[in-house]
Sequence to fold (501 residues):
Amino acid sequence: MNQGICYLVGAGPGDIGLVTLKAKACLEKADVLIYDALANPELLSWVPGHCEKINAGKRAAKHILKQEETNDLIVRKTQEGKTVVRLKGGDPMIFGRGGEEAAELAEAGVQYEIVPGISSAIAGPAYAGIPVTHRDHCSMLTLFTGHEDPTKGETSLDYDQLAKTPGTKVFLMGVKRMGEICSTLLDKGADPNTPIALTRWATTGRQSTVTGTLSTIADVVIKANFKSPAVAVIGEVVKEREKINWFEESRPLLGKRIVVTRTRQQAGQMSKLLGEIGADVLEIPTIQITEPDNMPQFLEFVADVHKYDWLIFTSPNGVHRFFKEFFQKYSDARSIGGVKIAAIGPGTRSAIAEYRLGTDLLPKKYVAEGLVEAFSHEQIENQTILWVKAKESRDVISEGLGKQGAIVDICLAYQSVPVTDDPTGNFTRFQEEGADVITFTSASTAENFFAMQPDIPEGCQIASIGPITSDALTQHGYAPQIESKESTIPAFVNTIKEALT
Fold:
C-alpha cells in the first residue's frame, strides 16, 4: 500500500488570492479534504474529482466534528495511504490547533507536512488600513486569543501582563466576550482611551470595521450588531486607519452580495472582476461540462479541420475542448491549414488567442443572430463550415448559414449537464443569507439554477448578460431588472456596478 501523507494547510484569511502556491498544489493532489468553515469555499473546487470532502466545521461554538474526532480522522485517512489535506482558516499554527493535530500525526508515525498560511491576525488589520507595527507608534506585537473567558476562575492568559505590555495587541475569537475582555484589561490598569478596531470577514467582500476605545468598543459592537468572525487590534496604530483605509473606501460594491451562476469547472472572469470592486461573490455552479455523446465523431471533426473553409466557435468552452484534442492529434499548429476562424464574441476570441491564432470574423452583436448577420457579408455559398458547439446550443447558426448556401457540419464538443449538489456550500448560504443580485450569463445557467428550486429573497435583483438570457429568465417568471448593455463579461460587470451605485 502507498504511504499516505497529511498536509496541515493554512487557507489564509478569506481572499482566495492570498492562498499560497504550495497550498494550491496540495489541494490539487488531495484524495481527502478535511476543511473548516472559515476556509474560502471556492478552495473546494481546486481538489480532484475523486477527492472525498469532509466538513469538520470548527466555527465559534459550532463544531460538526469534535477536535478528538478530527484528530482520529486525519490519522486514519493518512494510514489508509491517502493524500490528506487538513485545510484550516488562516494559519494552522496560530490559534488553529494545528500543533495538536501535528502531534497526533507524529505519534501515529505517519508522514505529514505543515503548510503555513496568512493569518487573519496580520491580514485583517492590513486590510483595515492598520499596520500592526509602525515606527511612530510601536515596535512590538502581542497576539492572544479572546476565546477564553477572562472572568473564569482559571484563565491561561495573564491579563495583568497584557494590560501593562506596550505595543500593539491583536486578539482573535473575542467578539462575544468583548465587554469582559475590555473590562478586565481596564481593571488591570489599561488606559481607557486606548484605540481599538474590530474587522470582520477580513479580506472578503463582507469586510467591515468598527472602531472605538477600550472604554467604548463594547457598546459600539452591540449597537452595530457586530458579530464574529473578527480580529481585534488594540493600540495607537489604529489611528493610521484614518489615512490608509485602502480596502473599504476604494471598492464601490463592498458589502453587496452577488451570486454568479456558472459551470462547475470555471472560476470565472466575472467573479474576479466583481471581487476587484468589492463584491461579496457567491459562485454557485449550475452546469457541469462533460464529453459529447459521440466522442469518436468529435475527434474525427478535429482531425479533419484543415479540410474546411471556416471554423466557428461560439463559446470559450468549445475552443478549449477543441484545441485540447487538436494538439493531442497534431504537434504543429500549422496543421489547422488555411481555415478561417469566426468567434461569437470577445470572450471566445480571447480563448482562441490563447492558442496564438487570430479571429477572422467577429460580429457586431455577440449573439448567434449577430454572427449569422456578419456572415451575410462574406461569400460563403458552397463553402464548408465546421461549427464547434455545445449539444444544447440553439440551431440559429446552422439554419442561418444554410440559407446563405453554406455547407455546415455540426461538431458537438461538449454537453452541459445540471449540477445537482452544492459543492461549495454557496447555494445553502444564498438560501440562508440572501443576495443583492443574481447574475446569469446564459439561458442554460438560468434553466439549471431555477431547477434547484431556489427561494428568491425579496429585493434581490436579477441580472442578465443579454436578450437571449433575458428571454429565458422571463419564461421562468423573473424578468431581469438589470440587462447588460453589451453581451460581454466586462460590460456586464460595469452594468451591475452602475445599477448598484
